Amino acid sequence: MRAFADRQLYPPVILAPMAGITDLPFRALVARFGAGLVVSEMIASQEMVQARPVARDKAELGLGIENTAVQLAGCDPYWMAEAARMLEARGARMIDINMGCPAKKVVSASGTGASGSALMREPDHALRLIEAVVSAVGVPVTLKTRLGWDDDSLNAPEIAQRAEAAGIAMITIHGRTRCQFYKGRADWAAIRAVRAAVRVPVIANGDIVDAASARAALAMSGADGLMVGRGARGRPWLLAGIAAAVHGGPRPHVPEGAALADLVAGHYEAMLGFYGRDLGLRVARKHLGWYMDHAGTDATLRREVLTAVEPAEILRLLPGAMTGQSARRKAA
């Protein structure tokens, strides 16, 4: 993989920023298995500077996670620059600028402003944001975007060239337009035009869920690395497995049975510790559901786990849920 700034990102397999998913407990777990970089949830820059608790929680870096990027969204150069300075001071190794989120509340003026993928329709304004962030910090600044707003405006190569000239150190391209949201298939081949337009590392993103899709994405895009998102839900070891399959090195041990139950219990308790009991219970349900999808949990037992309201009861049910036991079991 090409170097950026004064660091070498290796293995070049990156955890994508995912709202409500890539919080500190999950990033720590993925990093423990092995990933070149983990990226925080998208953080609204103005909310970060104004000390909104939700934004500060999303930006929490934790201890022992060295390769962490924090992703910023916004539409005002001042707030973007100030938030980037704060994040660098808190220990962020990189700042990633969001130009790819397709959510209506992000791309409309009623949310965080015309930010996210809406910036692809205003390249001049996008460049002002990029320049403000790059000039504000000493750490590498990266960019995550899409192929374009729609099929009639596939301007990612042009934006990438201008971003590189402004000091962007790495560019991640999700192989869809904003108007596709997450429908259809990611067009990895279309990323090749961005790869040809710039010298900085280009990362391919979209529909990378296993070693086979990782190899295909690299071959079709010509990218320098990969970003993995939804495929990692319930499989925090996935990035390490892809890195081993594509780039060599030891394969991670994929936990099963009792080992998986222990891992999930640890993740569950970390979420309760990070969010507090009530919010932690709500946040944890989706992660528990994804783990049970992977484990093939019996439907009745799955329902019990997801409707339990006491942490002790959930922890009691997890060994059976992760080892494929039937819901008809003796009470512990």
UniProtKB/TrEMBL annotation:
<dbReference type="InterPro" id="IPR001269">
    <property type="entry name" value="DUS_fam"/>
</dbReference>
<keyword id="KW-0547">Nucleotide-binding</keyword>
<feature type="domain" description="DUS-like FMN-binding">
    <location>
        <begin position="14"/>
        <end position="315"/>
    </location>
</feature>
<keyword id="KW-0820">tRNA-binding</keyword>
<feature type="active site" description="Proton donor">
    <location>
        <position position="101"/>
    </location>
</feature>
<feature type="binding site">
    <location>
        <position position="71"/>
    </location>
    <ligand>
        <name>FMN</name>
    </ligand>
</feature>
<comment type="similarity">
    <text>Belongs to the dus family.</text>
</comment>
<dbReference type="InterPro" id="IPR024036">
    <property type="entry name" value="tRNA-dHydroUridine_Synthase_C"/>
</dbReference>
<comment type="function">
    <text>Catalyzes the synthesis of 5,6-dihydrouridine (D), a modified base found in the D-loop of most tRNAs, via the reduction of the C5-C6 double bond in target uridines.</text>
</comment>
<feature type="binding site">
    <location>
        <position position="174"/>
    </location>
    <ligand>
        <name>FMN</name>
    </ligand>
</feature>
<dbReference type="InterPro" id="IPR035587">
    <property type="entry name" value="DUS-like_FMN-bd"/>
</dbReference>
<dbReference type="InterPro" id="IPR013785">
    <property type="entry name" value="Aldolase_TIM"/>
</dbReference>
<keyword id="KW-0560">Oxidoreductase</keyword>
<protein>
    <recommendedName>
        <fullName>tRNA-dihydrouridine synthase</fullName>
        <ecNumber>1.3.1.-</ecNumber>
    </recommendedName>
</protein>
<keyword id="KW-0285">Flavoprotein</keyword>
<dbReference type="InterPro" id="IPR004652">
    <property type="entry name" value="DusB-like"/>
</dbReference>
<keyword id="KW-0521">NADP</keyword>
<dbReference type="GO" id="GO:0050660">
    <property type="term" value="F:flavin adenine dinucleotide binding"/>
</dbReference>
<feature type="binding site">
    <location>
        <begin position="17"/>
        <end position="19"/>
    </location>
    <ligand>
        <name>FMN</name>
    </ligand>
</feature>
<dbReference type="GO" id="GO:0017150">
    <property type="term" value="F:tRNA dihydrouridine synthase activity"/>
</dbReference>
<dbReference type="InterPro" id="IPR018517">
    <property type="entry name" value="tRNA_hU_synthase_CS"/>
</dbReference>
<feature type="binding site">
    <location>
        <begin position="229"/>
        <end position="230"/>
    </location>
    <ligand>
        <name>FMN</name>
    </ligand>
</feature>
<dbReference type="GO" id="GO:0000049">
    <property type="term" value="F:tRNA binding"/>
</dbReference>
<keyword id="KW-0694">RNA-binding</keyword>
<dbReference type="Pfam" id="PF01207">
    <property type="entry name" value="Dus"/>
</dbReference>
<keyword id="KW-0288">FMN</keyword>
<keyword id="KW-0819">tRNA processing</keyword>
<feature type="binding site">
    <location>
        <position position="144"/>
    </location>
    <ligand>
        <name>FMN</name>
    </ligand>
</feature>
